[in-house]
Amino acid sequence: MTNYFKYLTEVDGITIEKSGKTFKFIKDGIEMELDRDFIYQVIMLYGLEKQQEDLVVVSNKKIRNVRRQLNIKAKKNIKEGENIVVEIDFPVSEDVADRIEQFKIK
To answer: Based on the domain organization, do 44 and 86 belong to the same domain?
Structure first.
């Protein structure tokens, strides 16, 4: 089973291997397997402030809502062939919104 895990590193004499969402810690022949989500939760609960900050990805992108119209052709419960028009707003980054605006029919 050991070849299933990919060797990553050795820290303080502990070998750390990874496979998918699990990590295997090995020291002096004793093995412990932990789920990535569990490790993340432990660090977020008990880690130093700097360690916690390093785990949280912060993006400073400007976001704006873009409104789009959906046209749906009904097949049941209303007159067949009648169109349903629905407008939806969804958030996108400004650069994507600008590209969408280029294709708007004026």
So the answer is: no
